[in-house]
C-alpha cells in the first residue's frame, strides 16, 4: 500500500492536479502582489492615532491567522489581510470625520467579525448578498475606488483642502516627484504584467526618496524583532455599543466586507475554473468563516477588517489550487515581520501612489452598471458621487440605498425592492433625521 504524505493527505494535491513546488511558488507570488498592504495599512491606521509599528505587527498576525484557516480548514488558495477601502473607512470616516476614537472603530470591526461568523455558519451571508441589487454592489466598488484615490492624492499633497473645496497642491516638490515616479513605475510594471508591481513601485520610489532626502535611513540594522502590539491590542471600547452611530459604522463595515469577500471569491474562482457545474465554490462557507475569524482576531490584535484579496488571482494564475498556497503566503508574511525597519523607511508618497492605482483597479465594474435605466443608474451615481465628495464610504452607501428605494417606489417598481432594502433605507433615513 502506497504511503500517503502529509501534504497529499491534508491538501489533496493530486485531486487538484498540482504539487508542492507549484503551490509554494503560487503562495510567494500572491504575497508579492498583496504585500504592499504591509506598507499601506500601518500608514493609514496610524493617522487615526494608532501606533505605526504595532499596526504593522497586528496586520501580519491577523493575516497569518486568517490564512492558516484558509489553508488547513477551507483548503483554498486565497490570501487574506487588512482590506483596502475598509482601512480607509476606519481612519478617514469613523475616526477623522465622525470624531470617534480608534478604539470605537476597532470595536465595530470586532462586532462585524462576530456577526459575520454567525451569518457564515448559518448561510445567511449569501442570502443578504443576493437581496442587495447588483447596481449598488458595483457602485460601492467604484465609489470606494474614487475615495481611495482621493485619499492618496491628498496624502501625497498633490491636491489640498481649500475653500470652497479642493485645489492643486505643489506638484513640483521633491515629495511630489517621488509620488509621480512611484505612480508611473506601478502603472508601467502593471502593464507589463510584472508580479508585485505595486510592491516594486513602492520599493523603487523609496530608494528615490532616500536619494532626494525626502526620507532618511534608520539607525541600526534593517532586520529586527517585530514591534510589540501592546499599544493597540485588546483596546476595545464598549461604551457606545448600542448607539445608532455604532450601528451605522458596523453596517458599513459589514456591507463593504460582504461584497468584497464574496465578489473576490467568485471572481478569482471563476478565472481559475474552480467552480462546479452549478457555479458553486467548494468549501466557500469555510472560506467565509476564515475571513470572519480573521476579522474578529484582527480587531482584538489591533487592525481593521481582514478580507480575501483579489490579488490571490496572481497565485492562482501560477497554478495554486489548494490551501498550501495560502500557507506559503502566510509564511512569507511571517518572514516580513522581521523587516519592519525596511517597511518603516517607505514614504507616504509611495503608499499614496499605491492607493491611486488600487483605486483605478476598483473602477472596472462601472461598465457593468445599467445606465440605460435611470432607476438603476441614479442610485449608483449617488453612491459613487457621495463617497469622495462626502469623504465617507458610509454616506455613499446610505445615499445609494435611500435613493434606490425611493425611486423604485415612486416609479411603480416597488416589487424590484427586497424587504432587506426597505429596512435598511428606513434605518438610514432615521439616522439622518435624528
From TrEMBL:
InterPro entries: Azg-like, Azg-like_bact_archaea, NCS2
Lipid bilayer topology: Multi-pass membrane protein
Residue ranges of the TM segments: 20-40, 52-71, 102-124, 136-159, 171-190, 197-217, 246-268, 288-310, 322-343, 350-369, 389-410, 417-433
Pfam family, one: Xan_ur_permease
Subcellular compartments: Cell membrane
Annotated coiled-coil segments of the chain: none
Keywords assigned: Cell membrane, Membrane, Transmembrane, Transmembrane helix, Transport
Stated family: Belongs to the nucleobase:cation symporter-2 (NCS2) (TC 2.A.40) family. Azg-like subfamily.
Protein name per its UniProtKB record: NCS2 family permease
Amino acid at each position: 500500500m502506497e504511503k500517503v504524505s502529509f501534504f497529499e493527505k491534508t491538501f489533496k494535491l493530486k485531486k487538484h492536479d498540482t504539487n508542492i513546488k507549484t503551490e509554494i511558488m503560487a503562495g510567494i507570488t500572491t504575497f508579492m502582489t498583496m504585500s504592499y498592504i504591509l506598507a499601506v495599512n500601518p500608514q493609514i491606521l496610524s493617522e487615526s492615532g494608532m501606533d505605526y509599528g504595532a499596526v504593522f505587527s497586528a496586520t501580519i498576525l491577523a493575516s497569518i491567522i486568517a490564512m492558516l484557516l484558509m489553508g488547513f480548514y477551507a483548503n483554498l488558495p486565497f490570501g487574506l489581510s487588512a482590506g483596502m477601502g475598509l482601512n480607509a473607512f476606519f481612519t478617514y470616516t469613523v475616526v477623522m470625520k465622525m470624531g470617534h476614537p480608534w478604539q470605537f472603530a476597532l470595536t465595530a470591526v470586532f462586532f462585524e467579525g462576530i456577526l459575520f461568523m454567525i451569518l457564515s455558519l448559518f448561510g445567511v451571508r449569501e442570502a443578504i448578498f443576493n437581496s442587495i441589487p447588483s447596481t449598488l454592489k458595483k457602485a460601492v466598488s467604484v465609489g470606494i475606488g474614487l475615495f481611495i484615490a482621493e485619499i492618496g492624492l491628498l496624502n501625497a499633497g498633490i491636491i489640498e483642502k481649500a475653500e470652497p473645496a479642493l485645489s492643486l497642491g505643489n506638484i513640483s516638490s521633491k515629495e511630489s516627484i517621488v509620488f509621480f515616479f512611484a505612480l508611473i513605475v506601478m502603472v508601467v510594471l502593471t502593464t507589463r504584467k510584472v508580479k508585485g508591481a505595486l510592491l516594486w513601485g513602492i520599493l523603487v520610489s523609496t530608494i528615490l526618496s532616500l536619494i532626494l532626502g525626502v526620507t532618511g535611513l534608520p539607525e541600526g540594522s534593517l532586520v529586527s524583532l517585530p514591534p510589540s502590539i501592546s499599544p493597540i491590542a485588546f483596546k476595545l471600547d464598549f461604551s457606545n455599543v448600542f448607539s445608532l452611530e455604532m450601528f451605522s459604522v458596523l453596517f458599513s463595515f459589514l456591507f463593504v466586507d460582504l461584497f468584497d469577500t464574496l465578489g473576490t471569491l467568485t471572481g478569482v474562482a471563476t478565472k481559475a475554473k474552480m467552480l462546479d457545474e452549478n457555479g458553486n465554490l467548494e468549501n466557500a462557507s469555510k472560506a467565509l468563516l476564515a475571513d470572519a475569524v480573521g476579522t474578529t482576531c484582527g480587531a482584538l490584535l489591533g487592525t481593521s477588517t481582514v478580507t480575501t484579496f483579489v490579488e490571490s488571482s496572481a497565485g492562482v494564475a501560477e497554478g495554486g489550487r489548494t490551501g498550501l498556497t495560502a500557507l506559503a503566503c502566510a509564511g512569507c508574511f511571517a518572514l516580513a515581520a522581521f523587516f519592519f525597519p525596511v517597511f518603516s523607511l517607505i514614504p507616504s508618497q509611495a503608499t499614496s501612489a499605491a492607493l491611486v492605482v488600487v483605486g483605478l483597479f476598483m473602477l472596472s465594474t462601472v461598465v457593468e452598471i445599467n445606465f440605460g435605466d435611470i432607476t438603476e443608474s441614479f442610485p449608483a451615481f449617488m453612491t459613487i458621487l457621495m463617497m469622495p465628495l462626502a469623504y465617507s464610504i458610509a454616506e455613499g452607501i446610505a445615499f445609494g440605498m435611500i435613493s434606490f428605494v425611493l425611486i423604485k417606489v415612486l416609479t411603480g417598481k416597488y416589487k424590484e425592492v427586497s424587504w432587506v432594502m426597505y429596512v435598511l433605507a428606513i434605518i438610514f433615513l432615521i439616522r439622518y433625521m435624528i
